[in-house]
Amino acid sequence: MRLKSLKHNIENNIFEFEKVVTKSKSISDVLNYYNFCDNGKQRKYFRDIIEKNNIDTNHFYDIKILTKCGFCNKEIKVFPRIINNSKCKKAFCGQSCSATYNNTHKKFGIRISKLEKWLSEKLVQLYPNLEFHFNRKDTINAELDIFIPSIRLAFELNGIFHYEPIFGEEKLKLTQINDKRKFQACLEKQIELCVIDVSNQKYFKQEKSNEILDIIIRIINSKN
Questions:
Q1: I need a surface site. Which of 2, 43, 78, 156 has the fewest CB within 10 A?
Q2: Rounded Cα–Cα distance for residues 173 and 167 (Å)
Q3: How far apart are CA 62 and CA 66, in angstroms?
Q4: What strands, in cross-sheet order, belong to the sheet with 133-136?
Q5: What is the pLDDT of residues 17-74, one digit of tens each?
């Protein structure tokens, strides 16, 4: 009877309930305030009441919110703490999207990604009529550093990790197996894949980067 009476009081005093929710930091806090057991059944009851009355719980750390993947824009539900604890303040639908986003938005300590960012800006300026795909996986189900769909041309910029066991022999072996799979996948899709060795660029230098850009330009121009 006590439980039924509590639920009746909550449902008939939504304004007071909303104030409790606003002051709380979690669904557990709300349950404790009303002396409910913290279990799945009671949590569902309170979530239903909250959703029915459109009460904001974005500040809760134990209720998932609807958002979009920071890379592919797929709708996902995540705990707010995932977003709050993320350096980029984004959530992702999976490890693949997370890794791809991070690899293309790194600002510190990553040599090749700075090169890739610089190259992407230059190529878009030089070829405004060409469509470029940078660091996308939708063509061969594996990431291509640069892909130009209209001329079926792709580029991979391979750093030292593709040639030397910086993280051990096993990691190098897996990286090289993945490189071979990319090459084979491109062949099957009739994409010309050009691999450029950038392992001698230990940190970003525009002078050396211009040499790489010139190689890419010559190859693109040869296709026109």
A1: 2
A2: 10
A3: 13
A4: 133-136, 144-148, 153-158, 192-197
A5: 999 999 998 889 999 998 888 888 888 888 888 888 989 887 888 878 888 988 888 8
Per the structure block, which two tokens stand in for 172? 């190098």
Residue 29 identity (one-letter amino acid)? D
- Give the DSSP H/E element, type plus range, for residue 156: strand 153-158
Q: Which residue has the tokens 């979009």?
A: 68
Which has the closest alpha carbon to 82: 95, 93, 91?
A: 91
Contact 92, 113 (CB under 8 A): no
Structure tokens at 146: 């640069």
Distance, in Å, from the CA atom of 174 to the CA atom of 166, rounded to the nearest integer, reads 13
pTM exceeds 0.90, yes or no: no
Give the largest CA-CA distance in the chain. 82
Amino acid 189 reads: K
- Reported CATH class of domain 106-222: alpha beta
